[in-house]
Amino acid sequence: MVGSGGARRAPLPGGRWGVTRSPSAVLDTAVVLPLFGECCWLCQLYGTWLPSGAVLKTEELPGNRGLCFPLVKACVFGNEPKASDEVTLTPRTETAETSPSWQALKLVFCASGLQVSYLTWGVLQERVMTRSYGATATSPGERFTDSQFLVLMNRVLALLVAGLYCVLCKQPRHGAPMYRYSFASLSNVLSSWCQYEALKFVSFPTQVLAKASKVIPVMLMGKLVSRRSYEHWEYLTAGLISIGVSMFLLSSGPEPRSSPATTLSGLLLLAGYIAFDSFTSNWQDALFAYKMSSVQMMFGVNLFSCLFTVGSLLEQGALLEGTRFMGRHSEFAAHALLLSICSACGQLFIFYTIGQFGAAVFTIIMTLRQAIAILLSCLLYGHTVTVVGGLGVAVVFAALLLRVYARGRLKQRGKKAVPTEPPVQKV
C-alpha cells in the first residue's frame, strides 16, 4: 500500500497490483514500505480530519452556535448524562426461574455460535488471502491482494448490524465524544490490515499462535495507557506463552515456497498486528468509562473505520479495482460476504456470551476455538507441525487456561481481579 499525496507511484513488489512475490526476495519494500505508507496515509488523513475544536471546552465555542452545533457537540464534546437515562445496562444476574438445563442450552448456543462464526471466518480468511480465483487448466488464475478492501467489507457490515441493533434495542444515553472512537478505529484498521497481509508470508497456525501471545504486549500497553499493575502469576503465564510460541516457531517445518525473508516479513506484520490490537483493547477499555454499551462501542469504532478505509482506498484508486475483482470472480464475492457476516455475527455472540456467563467462560471458549482453528488449518491446507511445535502449542493454551483459572480463584477470594481486555473488536 502506498502513502498519500503526489503522483501515482510505481507498483511495489508484491503489492496490490497482483505481482507475485518471489519467495527468495530480499526483505526491502515488500512489507516495510507498504506498512509505512499505510501508517503515514491514515495518520495524515486522521490529523487533517480531526475537528480542531476537540482541544477546546464547550464554553469556548462561539455564541452563535447555529444549526450544526448539536452535531458538533456530540462529535467533539459528547453528551452529558441525564438522571432519567443514567442506568439502562443491567448487570448479569442469576434469576430463580432460570433452570440449570436452560442455562446449559444457552451455553451450548453461545459456544456453538462463537465456534461456527470464528472457525468459518478463519478458514475463509486463509482461503481468500492464500489461494487463487478463476484457475483453469490453462490459466493459474489470480489472487486477491488488497487486504484493506476486505477490512472495509467487514467494517461496513459490522456497522450496519450494530446500527440496526441500537435502533431495535434500547441503549444507554450516549455520552462519549465521537472523535474518541477514531483512535481505536485507526489502530483497529492497521491491526486488521497487518493480520490479512501476514497470511501472505506465514501460515495460519503461526498467526493464531501470535494472536495468543498478544497477552504480553496487552500487559505492556496496560501499564503505559491505563497505568495498571499486574500479579506475579500473570507475568508467569505471559512467560509460558512466550516459551510456547518460540518452541512452535523454531521447530515447525518450513512452509512450501517460504524463505527466511518472507518469514521475517510475516513476523514483522504479526508484530504490527499485536501492537496495534493491544492499543485498541486498552483504548476501548478507557472509553467504557462513559457507561456505554458494547454495541455502541462496536458502532462508533466501525463508523470511523469505514471512513478511514474508504478515504484510503479512494486516494489510491483501489476501491474500484477491488469491486472489479469481485465482479470477475463470483466465488470471491461469496467468500468476502460470508467473511463479513461471520465477523459481525461473531461480535454479537461475544457480547451475548459475556453478558450471560462472564469473561472467564468466554475466554475458555475462544481459547478452544484457537486450538481447533489450528487443527482445521492443518487438515484443510496441509500445514506441517512437528512434535516439538505441537508441544509448544500445548504450552500456550495451557498457559491461557491457567490465566482463566487464576482469575476465577481471585474472584472467589474476594480480591479484585485485573480487568480483561474488552472483547469488542476481535477481527
What does this structure look like?
It is a single chain. The protein is an all-alpha fold and 427 residues long. Helix content is 65%, strand content 0%. Helix 4 (147-168) packs antiparallel against helix 10. Mean pLDDT is 75; it is low at 1-28, 48-64, 83-97 and 417-425.
Broad shape: globular
What can be said about the biggest beta sheet?
none
- End-to-end Cα distance, whole Å, is 20 Å
Q: Which structural class best describes the helix and strand composition?
A: mainly alpha
**Could you give the count of β-strands?**
0
Into which percentage range does the β-strand content fall?
A: under 5%
User: Could you report the average pLDDT, rounded to the nearest whole number?
Assistant: 75
Order of helices and strands: HHHHHHHHHHHHHH
Helix content: 55-70%
Radius of gyration: 22 Å
Multimerization status: single chain
How many helix segments? 14
Ranges where pLDDT stays below 50 over 5 or more residues in a row are: 1-28, 48-64, 83-97, 417-425
Task: Provide a short characterization of the protein structure.
The chain is mostly helical. 65% of the residues lie in helices and 0% in strands.
Spell out the key features of this protein.
427 residues; mainly alpha; 14 helices; 65% helix; disordered C terminus
Per-chain topology:
Blueprint lengths: L31 H18 L19 H8 L23 H31 L16 H22 L12 H18 L5 H9 L2 H11 L6 H20 L8 H28 L6 H23 L1 H11 L1 H28 L1 H23 L5 H26 L15
Helix pairs in contact: 1-5, 1-10, 3-12, 3-13, 4-10, 4-12, 5-9, 5-10, 6-8, 6-13, 7-9, 8-14, 11-12, 12-13, 13-14
